[in-house]
TrEMBL record, chain A:
PROSITE patterns with a match to the protein in the record: TBC_RABGAP
Protein name per UniProt: TBC1 domain family member 13
Entry-linked InterPro entries: Rab-GAP-TBC_dom, Rab-GAP_TBC_sf
Xref: Gene3D superfamilies: putative rabgap domain of human tbc1 domain family member 14 like domains, Ypt/Rab-GAP domain of gyp1p, domain 1, Ypt/Rab-GAP domain of gyp1p, domain 3
From TrEMBL, chain B:
Keywords from the UniProt entry: GTP-binding, Lipoprotein, Membrane, Nucleotide-binding, Prenylation
One of the Pfam families matching this protein, by short name: Ras
Subcellular location: Membrane
SMART domains attached to this UniProt entry: RAB, RAN, RAS, RHO
Annotated spans, Disordered: 184-211
Descriptive protein name: Ras-related protein Rab
Function field: The small GTPases Rab are key regulators in vesicle trafficking.
InterPro entries on file: P-loop_NTPase, Rab29/Rab38/Rab32, Small_GTP-bd, Small_GTPase
GO biological process, one term: phagosome-lysosome fusion
Molecular function, one GO term: GTPase activity
Membrane topology: Lipid-anchor
Amino acid sequence: MQNGMETAKYTRGRSREGELPKGRSLESRNTAAPLAAAPEMASRRAWLEDFRHMLSSEAIDFERLRTRCFQGCPDGEGIRATCWKILLGYLPPDTSSWEAVLESKRALYHQLVKETIINPHEDEESDSGEVVDHPLNPNPESSWNRFFVDNQVLLQIDHDTRRLYPDLSFFQQPTPYPRASYSAGMEALKKRVERSSLPSQRVGTTRMGIINMKSTAKYSSLEKYYLPLKEGEEAHWEVVERILFVHAKCNKGIGYVQGMNEVIGPLYYVFFQHPDVRWKEHAEADTSFCFSALMAEIGDVFTKKLDSAHLGIGGAMRSLMQLLKDKDPVLSKNFVKKGVEPQFFGFRWITLLLSQEFLLPELMRIWDSLFADANRFDFLLYMCCSMIISVREKLIAGDFAEAVKLLQHYPPLDIHKLLCNAEEIRRFHPLKKR
Amino acid sequence: MAAQGKKEHLYKILVIGDLGTGKTSIIKRYVHQFFSPHYRATIGVDFALKVLNWDNSTTIRLQLWDIAGQERFGNMTRVYYKEAVGAFVVFDVTRLSTFEAVQMWKADLDNKVLLPNGKAIPAVLLANKCDLASEGFLGNINQLDDYCREKGFHAWFETSAKENIGIEEAARSLVAKILENDETIDHPQPDGDGIRVGEEDGRAPKKTKCC
């Protein structure tokens, strides 16, 4: 497996039983499936060489790259990061333009950071020195008011990014490229939330008349569980926090939705692994644009207004259940009988592109295929269907609680088999144009 | 299988409240006797089981439904609440806004799920993270008692998932109330044969299984 090295590092002894339904139509048909078996050692070199060659050509053959990525990207040399950037449309196939493109995008991101993480104090005084804005300004357009509204959003983002990928130390570690080092006067967002949340709570009175709250309440017990960062240092989760905050500010319609942190985490992680220091250093800006590109495609499932619509999460869950019904009517009936609803598991699977269901190395391999899917993100639904069917015996044997628990805590199965089965479902039960 | 004459109940209990109030931590503490500050945000719903040996003749299986706190998931709650017989509504004592949201959560609950007799399902209010509370926040206990009466909460408890405070007591209180409801609600008997049989497929949230 191409992920062998990293998988071993992260799975920490989790067993990888390859469970497949027996006697069902899922056993691998030895046709020339586009998802060929992962290259073995002998062909590994050729496989790596092929990617190197594709990525170094002046004009990348996009279709070819897509086909190859669908079967999995190599881990090393920043190849995956580069491929994802191309697949998500951030980098054009014309490699000679990359430098210029990256430079302008990265500059644009820095500009966005400057504009969105505003300090309202800057507008406080007019040229004549007269105070025109103040914290109690009732004007909803006032920058102080904006500051307070923003902090509500920031508080949510802060809460969720602090607990991003808890089993991975990466996000708690300091980045070698803290924002403060090249933007003088940049204030850490986490500090802004700490400062703004508590004092403002004392102001409100409840209907119970509890007003004597003291300001001594501790903000959060979380901080002390992590190694404290030195002054001026910034953890990787704070970088993610900033990207999400900028995104929420630039996309007010959708704002911040829980789960976006889980989608952005793997992108940033992969981009930061790039061996080229300049790509590493700008992982933040690159992640921001790729995340936006991704949101442009999957944003509908994050949108509450579209929940029951065809394009929203409701439509996606219906498609998944229809797929299951076509592929495995017995299991589908069993779900109905037990009362197993897609909202209990599929909601999270689909919204987060499976990011909470697999360990990061396995997830990266799955995302290679998802991003390389010509009908993005139909393959996600085939994959979900494959996941359900791969544990069908246990699902049928178990009661409601066992079934839901199994789906919510998906066992570590062989990723390659899951992908192959998903591919087979696609070939024999293609989704109707959604 | 339960011993002769032993009653087994299966109850679905919801845990709701604003995001970051500690719903997942409370459940993990209650079910696994464990605390970590590192739980990921709950997306959609998560679900845990706890078996209680209530007394010599009663076993209770609790299905605890950990419901995502962000408002975005509001459309999903109807299907998540279905057939629940009890609820914990959680707020974070260090964040007043989460307390203000309590009545919104309670209203949402009463609006979307009812007991078979048409009454609201019993709900217990949890003032969580009490280990972090500044003195005075819960200073006036009578007022919180009044609040609970007015809003239709069965009881309230100060809890800390971190320090393991109040959670067992709160659960006992809620379960006792559910049991009491269970005994007073007249269950329709299937086909008049007078014996309630747990549904074969173990279809979730059922009120009582008598063996």
